Amino acid sequence: MVEVTHTGGEENDAFDIELKNFPPGSVIAFRVSLTSSSRAAIALMRQNLTLFGFKMRSMSGSNLRQSDKDAGLKAILSRMSLSALNRALFRCHEEEADEHHGNGAYDIPRYGRFVYCGLQGLIPLLNDVRVNNDLGHPLCDNLRRGVWLGE
């Protein structure tokens, strides 16, 4: 009923699954697991998210303690002045254009200019994409075309 073909190289465990003679109404279950490098990357992302109040869970779903690995981000943030943090998050178009000779907030085709030049300009768009699973959003189109956040 199922033909599985290994399509990945030595470092890439990818498989094609083709259903053959699979009658309507049939059910099938597959067990998959992440590669060790994928598990490590996810663990690192989860550790960094704990700095913003998200509870970190292991791959099995159990809660984990914060480790010393997130001390790097804490150290960076603790050295930032309020002015630098404001710039990284909330800089407006006029402030950016004044300092960078006319370049202001990012302008996404079919969307328009971000409200802020900092991360807070991007976060609401990412939230819209995530909540609505809107991969047709102009931001996603901008990324697919390879123009990362404006030109």
UniProtKB/TrEMBL annotation:
It comes from the Eukaryota. Residues 10-149 form the Glycogen debranching enzyme central domain. It holds the Pfam family hGDE_central. Signal peptide: none annotated. GO terms for biological process: glycogen catabolic process. GO terms for molecular function: 4-alpha-glucanotransferase activity; amylo-alpha-1,6-glucosidase activity. PANTHER family: GLYCOGEN DEBRANCHING ENZYME (PTHR10569). This is Glycogen debranching enzyme central domain-containing protein. It comes from Plectus sambesii. The lineage of its organism: Eukaryota, Metazoa, Ecdysozoa, Nematoda, Chromadorea.
